[in-house]
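Quick log. Single chain, no ligands specified.
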Amino acid sequence: MFFLPLFDNNPTSRTPVITRSIIVICGLVFLYQFGLTEQVERLFIFSYGAIPALITGAEIRPNYFFDIPDSATLLTSVFMHGGLLHLGGNMLYLWIFGDNVEDSMGPIKFTLFYLACGIAATFTHIAIDPSSVTPLVGASGAIAGVLAAYLMLHPHAEVRVIIVIIIFVRWASFPAVVVLAGWILIQFLSAPSSLAEDGGVAYFAHIGGFVAGLALTPFMRNKGHPLFPSKAEEAHYYEYKEDDIEENIGDDTEHLAKHDHKADNRLKVLDRRQMKNAFVERYRKPQSNQTSNRTSNQTSNRHLPNVKKSK
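-> predicted structure:
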């Protein structure tokens, strides 16, 4: 059985500038990696990935590595990925859940929150095997913190997922609490098996990032945003928020009419909400007579031996 979230029915009131910026940066870094020769790419990953033995001082940084402080790799590793599927999976989760968390925190606090969760995830991975010389790369430790924040702030938001059981494909909608609880359960169940692997998925980094997200969210959320709200509380909060946005826009209508380009930017808030709701409504109830065919597109992915992915 395999399930993958595709989008949520949870509009935002502002453009998620930081979330989109992170996605762009990760994409550009991966494109740079992809353009390197295999040997240089391996050197790039070992130089900028987080290697526990170097960070703890158990090993000395080789002279042929790129010259950056070992502590700096706590941040650089968060923007690197070991393959296209690794990058695509992480960015999909960030695209779905990051915009609402950023909206609930604000761009500055969200940036600090994201980086703090990424660093916490790396330290958790280091604590499990401080003498490891396998580099850790990937944003999913930080994204795990984002998932924890979404769980605490938007537990009842509807998430659309695709479920694959052998050859059967189904679309379904679940509350975020079900989707994210299932995700973290998989991490805990898979973590013990990762101890014997040299490379692979760093499940303990995911768990560390998620725990950091749970701890930081109460302090990073916007004032007035409830934690683990009921459906009624969540609906009331967003009803008040939308009314406030529309009231502010309505008060400025006369002024905005004199400056059309500014009016367009301000009114995009409502346009995005309408477009997203229309998209969700279009796919809320798929037609029963449609059949789903699973197409397997294998993506070529250069093998990078001995690289630990926080996938």
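Residues 260-284 form the longest helix (25 residues).
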